[in-house]
UniProtKB/TrEMBL annotation:
Residues 1-30, 94-150, 159-217 form the SMP domain. Belongs to the LEA type SMP family. InterPro entries: LEA_SMP (IPR042971), LEA_SMP_dom (IPR007011). Keywords: Repeat. This is SMP domain-containing protein. The keyword Repeat applies.
Amino acid sequence: MQSAENIATGKTLKGGPAAVMQSAAARNERTGHVGHGQVSGFVSEQGVGVVETNVPGRHTVTETIGDQTVGGYEMPTPLASGCPAEVLGSGKLTIGEALEAAALSEGEKLVDRSDAAAIQAAEMRATGLNETLPGGVGAQAQSAASINARVPPASSERTTLGEVLSDASMKLPADKPVTREDAERVARAEMRNNPAMTTHPTGVAASVEAAARLNENADV
């Protein structure tokens, strides 16, 4: 839900469904009711969605889990002559945008090997090339992961996901809408390079997965 909120609105909404769910998940984990990487079948099968709707004078955000609405709010917006009703989530989200959403979700996370592998896989899917581009976002992530693994924990030389991915769309020489296959490739790359063989709950693969789901929902 955090990834979906970040992609649709550019931030995690204070007091919104994602924030409430994060608090509940942390409490459930502390009490031993769920594991850290555990996902309920309902969510994994039906996914989450965040849709923004703009109509003259009003801006609406609706958040859903499967077919259940779990949150929503409205705010007034300036009227613009001839402004048609539109759904911002109806346009296809790109790989670059999904990477930028990961920067919002996990901006302070230090880049590691699994992050770098996921970013490299995403770059390859965006460009259609089977290589890491010199000076590209994938190469930057790989360099950051290598440095982070060598330098002391308190070193200022360590690099975060936010620093690598904040302008991912501009760093990619080509971009494309996220598909289910893109999400699967990125997830596999992240898992293969994680000793625990899992993806990070709100990391790169999760963000690409959220974008793929939103794109699929836009086709329905």
